[in-house]
Amino acid sequence: MAFPVVFFRIRWTHLRSQELLKALFNNFYYYSATWELVEDMKRRVLLTCIGVGFLGVIAAALGFGAESKRIKESDIDFIPPGKCTYPRTPAFALGLTAFLVLIVAHAIINASAGCICCNKLSGAWVTFCAVFSWLVSALASILLLAGSLLNDRHTVDERYSVDFCYEVLRPWIFAKGAVLGLISVTFGVLYYVNISSIKDMNQMATPVNADNHGNIAMTQPQVPAQMTQQPVFVPEDTYNRRQFV
């Protein structure tokens, strides 16, 4: 009689089907959670890049605006004996605002991406973007601050040099600061995008499970282990032999 053999094979096939269905469900749950996490990461990175880029453009526009409003030769008042007075122009406020906006943009980049010293997996290109962004932003900040101070109200003594009063008329100082500030923000965004992609790949490699509060944590997809126990073959006359015993 083949009934025990058929029953055992049907039972084994049913168990195997349950394992396959469970594995398919776990894999579907894993990839669904992973896809949602990736989309959330991309959305966060995109919003940060748009915000920082907008601040960089604002800082550059303020710098060029300060360049157009800087002190002209006709604005200098000569006071005898041997003194000259400079008025405060709108370039002072514009340059100072551009400096503050540039600082805020780089603060957002550093807060979002983290310090380059703590990211051990960053490559040479990521390190170059971070260091170059810091150096150029420092130079841009110096130019914007120097231009703002030169366009503040102050009085100088010209008796040491005839052309001493005209030394404050430094053309393109705000324009240089604006261009360098925009370049520094661009490389800062490149650094943030690269370091975020590295962090995202590392986070996606960690396990995902749903905790008691319904939150989702990362896990590896579960694949059922192959059943090592093969179905046991039972001879058809086993039942008959037991009846004769």
Automatic annotation (TrEMBL):
Transmembrane segments: 45-66, 91-113, 125-149, 169-193
Topology in membrane: Multi-pass membrane protein
Keywords: Membrane, Signal, Transmembrane, Transmembrane helix
GO cellular component entries: endomembrane system
Cited InterPro entries: DEAL/Modifying_wall_lignin1/2 (IPR009606), DESIGUAL (IPR052222)
UniProt-annotated location(s): Endomembrane system
Family: Belongs to the DESIGUAL family.
Protein name: Uncharacterized protein
